[in-house]
Amino acid sequence: MEMAYVNVAEWTPEHVAEWLRGLEYSLVPYVQFFLNNKIDGCHLLNLTADDLEDLHIFKIGHQLLILEAVELLRQLVSMTLIY
């Protein structure tokens, strides 16, 4: 079985914005904060709750949604490195 290789670390801020838009509609208002702060794939993979507060994301539920999705991306990246 061949897996598609997605190099998240090479994502541009625009790729990250598209990813964020696709997570959940309630997160769309944060897209501009990510773009304004030039959050690219490398930054995304290293995001913490403190970083999210710096990006004006204060709702715990929204922070959890983003952090869980980032963790899934990290797992995807580590799985693709194995293959």
From TrEMBL:
Q: Which residues form the SAM domain?
A: 11-76
SMART domains cross-referenced by the UniProt entry? SAM (SM00454)
**InterPro entries xrefs:** CNKSR, SAM, SAM/pointed_sf
Native species: Trichonephila inaurata madagascariensis
Give the protein name, as stated in the record: Connector enhancer of kinase suppressor of ras 2
**What are the record keywords, sorted?**
Kinase, Transferase
Which GO molecular function, any one, fits this protein according to its record? Answer: kinase activity
The record's gene field reads Cnksr2_1
Could you tell me which PROSITE patterns the record lists for this protein? Answer: SAM_DOMAIN (PS50105)
